[in-house]
Batch of 2 targets.
Target 1
Amino acid sequence: MAFDSTFIKTLEYLNILARRLLTFEARADRASPRRGASIEFADYRSYVPGDEIRYIDWNVYARHGNLFVKEFTAEENVHAAILMDVSGSMCFGHPPKITAARELAAAIGYIGLVNFDTVSFYTMSDTLRCEKQFLRGKGAVFGMLEAIDAARPGGRTDFHVLATPIQRLKGRSVVVIITDFYDPTGYADGVRGLLSQKHQVHLVHVVAREELEPPERGRFFLVDLETARQREVTLTPDTLERYRGRFREYCAEVERFARDHELYYARVRSDEPLEKRIRDILRTGGILERR
């Protein structure tokens, strides 16, 4: 897909939307307990000899006759690493899950860059590849979008690649994984390996409408998009009902894993409007806080 001017305008709108949605609690989570001269007023304290005179609140002095100094919270630098699953299974669905993943990566990266966070972009399949590293500022947006657009899906998923060290800068490190969680060998050990690197991890689970509600009945050859293995099946109402139950349970299992490990988790559908997907992700908290 190509990110045209219309999509850029959509990203600008989503950034405004994000800032409106974010709560005071999210902002408080972002603020460091360090005190210093920064953009966020924190509290007053009594003046002591040696304090800088420019931080005295003279209005308070005029009203009460006592000297008080303003204190501020020093906001942390945040490095956001976006990991986008580009394995073969992401080609499934109408629209394909990879299209939804690209849009999400672009939107989250854009929101980070225009709010002065540092952003890196990785692709993930049976390897973890850094496509863009330590981007900063709105001027880096087009380079990031080009890298996202150039990512081509194929191959197998291997969550064990998450044990690969992800480079970080000083400050808080946020890792956003955009994936369908399709890995027959399991995802848990890989995510735990990522947690051992002391990142704040967000899981964005992309599912296709056809995975939730298969539209067809009858006899089919199912093809694994990652291994090319085929299996002949007959889809009856009873078979479909059992499948739906198992798929719902798998999604619930991933969500329980996230909750048990205190991770942020959002499940989005690939055919939903981008605005709704971004709303759902931002409401899980932590990816971006109001400045």
Note: The CA atoms of residues 163 and 193 lie 5 Å apart.
Target 2
Amino acid sequence: MKRFTNLSLAVALLFVVCVGSKTQVNAEIPKRVSIIIDDMGNGLKGTEEIFSIHAPLTVAIMPLLRTSKQDALRAEKAGFEVLLHLPMEFFHGKKEWLGPGAITTDMSTEEIKKQVRMDLDSVPGAKGINNHMGSKATSDEKVMRAVMEVVKERHLFFVDSATSSDSKVSKVAKEMGVPFTKRDIFLDNQNSRKAIERQLNRLLNEGIGKGKSIGIGHVGLQGMNTSQAIISFLPKIKKAGVEVVPVSRMVVKKEKRD
């Protein structure tokens, strides 16, 4: 009887240790979200409001525009992470809508690499690149290999804005050993404060449930609603125990070994 009691006690203690260890591991899983603001670099609506936010946002700046350099320098002082918001060809629409510095599928590999380098040079301090539009270009493996060559030579990373279900970003990045990640949620496809707050709530819930989530918002047409929604929602993110982090902390950093 005594032996049975000792065995039962040992099993009970083992169960408590195992459950306690599992609870401790779960408690240590970081919960993070990143918020990227696209279309900076041209003084669009909401730009000043974004710069007033005291949180480590990531700003994606269009190249070769009137405030590209200025916004990049301001962003660094504000504690934001900077990306080049690389204009890339999309399926439906005119190429000229992309603006200066665009990457199109009819360009040669060397033309693409030269243009990406020029674009990066116009956005000082850029830590990575994400695509502006790009449903056609990101689906083209030749284009993405050329872009990734420059990303790799500059020791940067690439964020797939996920504008195409046939994107080759992750395939090419993995093959070339380029750090990358992917957008989870567009915050402001609907230009209303309530709709954007709903998307921010989705971002928060994914950050809690999956441990990380990346959302993209914009200056411009949606700029005022997006900036105001973010400002009002940040305390809720903090209260939930979720950390807002630069998107560089979300990248897959596995390097290809030669």
Note: The chain has one domain: 31-250.
